[in-house]
Structures are given as structure tokens and as C-alpha cells.
Design goal:
With about 450 residues, this protein is α/β, with parallel strands linked by helices. The chain is about 35% helix and about 20% strand. α9 runs antiparallel to α13 and α10 packs across α13. About 0% of the residues have low confidence.
Length: about 450
């Protein structure tokens, strides 16, 4: 039996422009802009350290069709380092970096293969002694828009070795990504490929085991839409069988949502202390990795109205970021925790049980909301009444704060999202109405 390792990565998006960085201090901005390149360095070092025999890159190595010279030079250097270490590299290009894009002249070193467009190619992989380990089948995009089912063209001719498919594709029509090279999971399972090394979907997913159908996600998060650890898989083979898969982080800057409960707080100073403690805790647990944070302050608290009326969170974030900026300027390697945005999601300490039993407008409102919440059809009817015009108002934006909405004003369909929208509307009205009662 022969054991060997493969590294599977995708969606490096080298030299991503990272929009919206103009107002950031130099130290933070430079760290974010350079993060895709440092992720590539981390990936290269990992492959050499883990002594993998093969690196497969499943599309979108670059962020733009007309890829930058800097990105190409950095990538060529990384690939040449892998080749010098005796590691084979197989590269497929995707919709962001199709073969039609402008490219610097480059002769890949021995053991490095860039798949052609349109028709899958097959590359045999051998160990240092010349023994056959695997066949690597792959195809690149010739242009940025590929709507053909490329997976249907893959063919397995020899099952005595592992068969690996490298493809940039949308499997089963994931709605949050372009439907390029669409394929069905059932089709991939029946293909005879032992491991589908996929790219295109930036969230890490294992769609199937035996055969393995795997999205490793992207190697570096680029916005609050791409939070959490980003990296690649190191896959352990024994002959044609996958023994194990291990996810390894490669990201140089982590994007994350940080939730802070202020239910324990008695004063605004307590709120500040709780937020600072959570931010410092994130840094301590990060192992030196900088973070970009969306701060969400939530919980039921008697400070709810005071927090709403004041600019306390604005001032807290500005003061924190000023300190982080100064530290990042002094030390380019400083593990900053930068507050990208903040959101207040607290609720007041209103005794709903008392109000819901009253014969009053507030009691009626709470009882109606409770009835709506019990039935999906009533929740849907409630959503239908939330018009596009309402969602464009300040109140509508407040109610939908933090809620993903697919297009301006289109109907919501997810039950949890509908229930949360109803709860926000209920809380907002309750605060306004009870506050009005208190003033009488």
C-alpha cells in the first residue's frame, strides 16, 4: 500500500482590491490589502511542511481576468518554490481568471500543469520512485462565463489509481454564487472520480464522502460576507482511498462578527467594559492573527433606551479604533482587532406578560404578534405586507438591520428571518408605545 498527501485549495483571488479601505489607517489598510498574498505564502509553506505530493488549485487563482502583474509574479514564485520542493501542481482557472485574460509569458516548471479550456485533460501523478499514484483530471475556463456542464465531460479510464477531478463549478445551483459550469451532486457521485477538488463556492463544504466532493472555501476572507477561518484541505490517500482530510487555516486577516451580551451591565461604563473584554479576548485567542470585526451589542437590558438615545457605541468604536490604529502604525505586525461596523440589537426590560393580558392597544398588538408567530401562512402574509416602500424608510432599515435581503424589497421566505423581522417590529413598536405610556 502507498500513502501520499494532496493539498486542495481554491479561490485565492490574489490581489483582490478590497473596496472601501480608503478611510482606514495605513497599517490596517496595508495588512488587509496584502492578506491574499500572505495567505498564498502560508499555503506554500504548509504544502512543503506537510510534504504533500500534489497541490491542486481549483480556479480563481487571480481576482480579475486582466490579472495584475504583481499577482502573477507572486504566484509564479510560489509555484516555482513548490516545484523545487518536488511537489506537483495542477491548476484550473475559473470565471475570475479565465485563460482569455492577459498573462505574462511564463513557462511552468516541470511537474506543474495548467489545464486547458473546454475539454478535461488527464495528468498522471507518480511518486519519487516512479510508481503511479493518481490521475488528475481537470479543465479551465476559456472565458469568464461558462454555462456548460463541464463535469459531464470527465472520463475515468483506469481505476487502479486514485482519480481526482479539478473543477470550478456550481454544484446543485448554490444561489449565492454565479451558476457557472453547473453540475449535480448525483452526477459527480456517479462519475467514477474518487475525489472532486472543487472551487467557486467560498464557504467550506463537504458535499459527499466516498466519493469525496469538496469545496475548501477561499484561502482568505475578503469582507463580512466571508467570515470565519479560511484555508485549504490536506488530504491523506492510501492508494486510491481517502483516509483523512484535515482543514488548515491560511488566512492572514480574519473577518468575524463579534456578539457581546450586555445583560449584566448596570451602567454605560459596564457596557464599555464588557465590549473591551470581548475584543481583548478575541485578540488573545487569535494567535497573532489580525481581525476585522462587526460588533453586535445585544441582550435585554435596562440600558436599552439610553443606548438608543446616545452615541455611546459610535464613541466606543472610534476610541478603540484610534488605539488600534496607533499600535498598527508603530508595529506592522501588530495583531489589530479593527471594528469595521457596529450594531445595537438590545431590547428593553418590558414585562410582556403584564402587557399582553391588558385590554389595551399594546395588549392587542402583542396578542396579534403571538398569533402571527404560530403559523407559517400568517408569517408569510405579514411579509407580503412589508412593502418595498417601507423597507426604504429609516424604520424599515432599522427593522431589517443585520438581515440578509435578496434584492430591494423582494418578499422574504425564510421562516426564521420572517420571525426575526416580526420580533424586531414588535420590539420597536413596544418601545415606542410603552415609552409614550411612561411619559403620561
Amino acid at each position: 500500500m502507498t500513502g501520499w498527501r494532496m493539498l486542495h485549495a481554491a479561490d485565492l483571488h490574489l490581489d483582490s482590491p478590497f473596496g472601501g479601505l480608503a478611510g482606514l489607517p495605513n497599517g490596517v489598510r496595508d495588512a488587509i490589502r496584502g492578506s491574499t498574498f500572505r495567505a498564498l505564502d502560508n499555503l506554500t509553506a504548509l504544502a512543503i511542511r506537510e510534504r504533500v505530493r500534489l497541490v491542486v488549485l481549483a480556479g480563481d487563482v487571480y481576482d480579475l481576468e486582466d490579472r495584475s502583474i504583481r499577482a502573477q509574479l507572486k504566484f509564479h514564485d510560489a509555484v516555482e518554490r513548490l516545484a523545487e520542493a518536488g511537489i506537483a501542481v495542477c491548476i484550473a482557472h475559473g470565471n475570475h481568471d479565465p485563460l482569455s485574460g492577459r498573462r505574462l509569458p511564463w513557462v511552468p516548471p516541470r511537474g506543474v500543469h495548467v489545464f486547458a479550456a473546454d475539454e478535461p485533460e488527464t495528468v498522471p501523478l507518480h511518486d519519487a520512485k516512479g510508481r503511479l499514484l493518481a490521475y488528475v483530471h481537470g479543465v479551465s475556463y476559456g472565458n469568464a462565463v461558462v454555462t456548460e456542464n463541464l463535469a459531464a465531460k470527465f472520463r475515468v479510464h483506469d481505476r487502479t489509481a486514485a482519480n481526482i477531478g479539478v473543477l470550478h463549478a456550481n454544484v446543485d445551483g448554490a444561489s449565492d454564487h454565479g451558476n457557472y459550469a453547473p453540475a449535480a451532486r448525483s452526477q459527480l457521485i456517479a462519475s467514477g472520480i474518487d475525489y472532486w477538488a472543487l472551487g467557486h463556492i467560498h464557504a467550506r463544504q463537504v458535499l459527499n464522502e466516498s466519493p469525496h466532493i469538496v469545496y475548501p472555501g477561499n484561502t482568505q476572507g475578503r469582507s463580512m460576507k466571508e467570515t470565519g477561518a479560511k484555508g485549504c484541505y490536506v488530504v491523506e490517500f492510501e492508494d486510491a482511498r481517502v483516509l483523512d482530510m484535515t482543514f488548515h487555516e491560511t488566512d492572514a486577516v480574519r473577518w468575524t462578527t463579534l456578539e457581546v451580551s450586555v445583560e449584566e451591565a448596570r451602567t454605560l461604563l459596564d457596557v464599555q467594559e464588557l465590549v473591551h473584554r470581548k475584543l481583548d479576548g478575541l485578540r488573545a485567542a487569535a494567535g497573532g492573527k489580525p481581525h476585522v470585526v462587526r460588533l453586535v451589542v445585544r441582550g435585554r437590558t435596562g440600558l436599552h433606551r439610553e443606548l438608543k438615545r446616545t452615541s455611546m457605541l459610535d464613541e466606543l468604536a472610534a476610541e478603540w479604533n484610534e488605539t488600534e490604529s496607533e499600535a498598527a502604525e508603530r508595529d506592522p505586525g501588530y495583531p489589530f482587532v479593527w471594528i469595521e461596523s457596529h450594531r445595537l440589537e438590545t431590547r428593553g426590560l418590558i414585562d410582556r406578560a403584564e402587557w399582553i393580558g391588558q385590554d389595551s392597544f399594546i395588549g392587542d398588538m402583542l396578542r396579534i404578534a403571538a398569533e402571527i408567530r404560530k403559523r407559517d401562512d400568517r408569517l408569510s402574509a405579514f411579509a407580503d405586507e412589508v412593502t418595498e416602500e417601507l423597507l426604504r424608510t429609516r424604520v424599515g432599515r432599522h427593522l431589517l438591520s443585520g438581515q440578509p435581503l435578496s434584492g430591494g424589497g423582494r418578499a422574504l421566505t425564510d421562516r426564521d428571518q420572517l420571525a426575526e423581522l416580526l420580533a424586531r417590529a414588535e420590539d420597536w413598536l413596544l418601545d415606542m408605545l410603552v415609552e409614550g405610556e411612561d411619559r403620561r
